Recover the amino acids of this structure.
């Protein structure tokens, strides 16, 4: 493994983590009433909505600092799969106005999180190269 591999992992971790974290900060500031409503419409219990805080706050923070990175990435993957299932099923096979996939942002978050899950944190992380779950 070269230094550029570790720098690439750092860039991936910080960029995907920070962009998802911004969504989590918005939910911390504005609440999760919309998610509770979506769950209710599917007959699911409202307490499940609090899982968004794990997937959009805890997970990204772990990924950004590089501590328990794979667990943080798994939380983000779960969050994105839940988002696809709750809010975006009608757009799965749709194109946007510019011709790209209608869910390209959500797809980038999902696949970026999967990449972090598979690659781990790398050397430039709080957990270090050989850190547990990194």
């Amino acid at each position: 493994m070269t230094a550029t591999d570790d720098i690439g992992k750092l860039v991936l971790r910080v960029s995907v983590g920070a962009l998802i974290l911004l969504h989590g900060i918005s939910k911390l500031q504005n609440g999760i009433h919309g998610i509770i409503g979506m769950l209710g419409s599917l007959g699911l219990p409202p307490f499940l909505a609090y899982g968004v805080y794990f997937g959009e706050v805890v997970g990204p923070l772990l990924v950004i600092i590089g501590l328990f990175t794979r667990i943080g990435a798994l939380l983000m993957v779960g969050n994105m799969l839940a988002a696809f299932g709750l809010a975006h099923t009608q757009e799965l096979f749709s194109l946007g106005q510019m011709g790209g996939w209608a869910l390209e942002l959500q797809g980038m978050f999902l696949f970026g999180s999967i990449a972090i899950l598979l690659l781990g944190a790398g050397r430039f992380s709080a957990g270090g190269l050989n850190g547990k779950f990194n």
